[in-house]
Amino acid sequence: MARPRTTSDEAILAAAARAVGRRGPAGLTLASVAEEAGLAPATLVQRFGSKRNLLLALARQGPAHTGAVYDHARRQHDAPLVALHAALSDLASGVQTPEEMAGHLGFLQLDLTDPEFRTHAAAQAHRMRTETAALLADAVADRDLAAGTDVDDLARGVQITYNGALLLWAVEGGDSPKELLRNELDRLLRPHRT
User: Fold this and answer.
1) How far from each other are the two terminal CA atoms of the chain, in whole angstroms?
2) Which of 17, 71, 158, 190 is 20 to 30 A from 83 in CA distance terms?
3) From CA 70, how far away is CA 67, in angstroms rounded?
């Protein structure tokens, strides 16, 4: 009879995401993920088979994770723009140092050079833009943003601002990535506010 799993795949993938931030995918090993998750490396081999399969599982869960972050922000905050700030802050929470940003940029290299990874990255980007546009549409309906605001266009701007703010913070430093992100998002939204 098989032993029950005591650590979920979700917990392992969260540990893998932390390890990617620390080491980048090139420096990541199944042993480093296993240590982060408090498991034996053999457990990861049994569940995922290889480092590539583990990283693909991490990439595959990206769109669902992004959706869950936005859902959580909506449940916690009635105001759509407050929920948007919370969701983006949560998504950025894995970046606390420039070195962690470098680790995540290493994952982006996989996304850009490997078609299988790129498919998942594109789905995650689409999910983020769709979720953002929905919150912006709610903000228009609540009259927090001007009537007639092109929420799809603004959602794209939010996504570019999110990515750009994190890169700028990693290069220039400053208080925190979340603070820079908040300030840049406010600057983007200001002309659309009522």
Assistant:
1) 63
2) 17
3) 5
